[in-house]
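for the record, two folds in this file. i put them one after another cuz i was lazy. first one right below, seq on top, structure tokens after. the second one comes after a little note so u can tell where it starts
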Amino acid sequence: MAEKTPEEMREAVLAIREKMAAAAREAGRDPDEIQLCAACKTRTAETVAASAALPIDVFGENHVQELCANSDAGAYCGKPSHFIGHLQTNKIKKVLGRASLIQSVGSEHLLTAIEKEAAKAGIVQNVLLEVNIGGEESKSGVSPEALWPLLDAAAAQEHIRVKGLMAIPPVNDDDAQNRRYLAAVHDLFVKAGERGYSNVEMQTLSMGMSGDYENAIREGATLVRIGTAIYGERDYRKR
């Protein structure tokens, strides 16, 4: 599957929106409460700008240099951008002020570094805490058990506001197992919200990608991150 044309992107987004709405209704939820995040890794500013005219709520960037380039080029056309990839501490300064939400905070080390840079900049940065629900060594994020000390640490920061959780469940052809992982993340999301911290507001549960976003919505996701199904296959030779 090659990279999609603008018309193919339009058709793809409309089809995704229909599936999102159907999954929401199946779960007794309001389709309007679920956001579509376009994961635009490796896409050109022109492609991102073309997709911004479509019913996409927010753009998700995996790489700091691409966030900077697309932001500076005005490719998001006024729509918000989130940082969804692995964030190195030496690049936090470039993300602050560009990404309205950092979705991938999965360690106290990163949390502390964001707090330090946000304090210097005089801003409050919204974040999601990343949970490694499958315990995979290849993925970042904290274990379900380690979420609680990370949440405690985040709640103590003056320049950070926790807005929810993010997770990438293991790739799994077993539909039932996939839903168990997603349901487990939702359970953590609910429990985190019950802790009653003044600067923790569980608004966003970011989970579900091109292969499992319908299941994610059925299990409580409020934001799904979709790249390939919108844009087509990535051409990594461009980077």
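(here's the note) second protein begins now
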Amino acid sequence: MKKQDLSVKNVVAMGIGSAIYVVLTRFTSIPTPIPNTNIELVFPFLALFAAIYGAKVGFAVGFIGHTLSDFIMYGQTWWSWVLATGVLGLIIGLASKKLDLKNGIFGIKQILLFNIVQIFANIIAWIVVAPIGDIIIYSEPANKVFVQGISATLSNGITILVVGTLLLKAYASTKIKKGSLRKED
């Protein structure tokens, strides 16, 4: 079995993506009535990076970005939610090959696939990983963490559905379509 190393491009994407994640989290979080749960406009950006660069980068940007954001904003890191963010990026990144963004294709079929995957990823991240991690690691009450998880699933799913779809559509439109006579610069 051949060992796959990370390319320089992917390592740079992880670093830049994580830095942008921190900035977006700091300045675009919108509080909700659910304690410690915000509408996060950073997640469409994470979905974009995961869709472009794949699962490793998606996981790393989510994990590193969330770790740094928590530490900078709160002085501590909430590991169960950091892991959930990494899982979100990982799952979206795993589906990236099916999207064919590099060939400028992001039509109805790809939009539906992307949104089915991101909704599934949000459910796994916020209704499974984060609450169970909160219960196991921090001894948080189950009713509290599952309400937070459901709230995060809904808000993140909607922001990725709207903003993430627009970002991916815009990105795909910058790529040369498969079979095009236009040459790449």
